[in-house]
Design goal:
10 strands, 146 residues, Rieske Iron-sulfur Protein, 1 helix, alpha+beta, binds FE2/S2 (inorganic) cluster, four-stranded antiparallel beta sheet
């Protein structure tokens, strides 16, 4: 009889451990998703696809560079000597926009959406502007976004 109680007690504890571990496995990604990225700390460095920082002097006047930041695909253009950083993700269905310098617009090739130089949606189906980021240059030339 004691052996049955012991076995039952063991199985109850085992089931509790299994359910507890399963709960933690499912809850961890949800908790990570809910914690804002800004609380991760550190610098939001603009990089190429390989994670190499893009230096401020690598983006020439009138040129653009599509890279990555903590916010995802990001496009930076230089106009009037000043860098502007915007999300490269179209606000319609998420295609990547590209800078068209001779038209002064960001163009989305998926459904011909257009955004002005500040990221405002000016034609086509995009419902809202591109997200814009503040740009700072570190002493070593790295581009930092916020
Ligand atoms: S995804 Fe950009 S216009 Fe549709």
């Amino acid at each position: 009889m004691d052996e049955n109680i012991s076995r039952r007690s063991f199985l109850t504890k085992l089931i509790g451990v299994v359910f507890g571990a399963t709960g933690i496995l499912f809850a961890a990604p949800v908790v990570k998703y809910l914690i804002p990225k800004s609380s991760e700390g550190g610098e939001n460095i603009f990089t190429n696809a390989d994670g190499k920082p893009i230096l401020e002097n690598e983006i020439k006047e009138g040129a653009s560079f599509t890279g990555l930041s903590r916010s995802g695909p990001t496009i930076i253009i230089r106009r009037g000597g000043k860098l502007r950083a915007l999300s490269a993700v179209c606000t319609h269905l998420g295609c990547l926009v590209k800078w068209v310098p001779n038209e002064d617009v960001f163009f989305c090739p998926c459904h011909a959406g257009k955004f002005d130089v500040n990221g405002a949606n000016i034609s086509g189906p995009p419902p809202v502007p591109l997200a814009a980021y503040n740009v700072e240059t570190a002493n070593d030339g790295r581009i930092l976004l916020s």
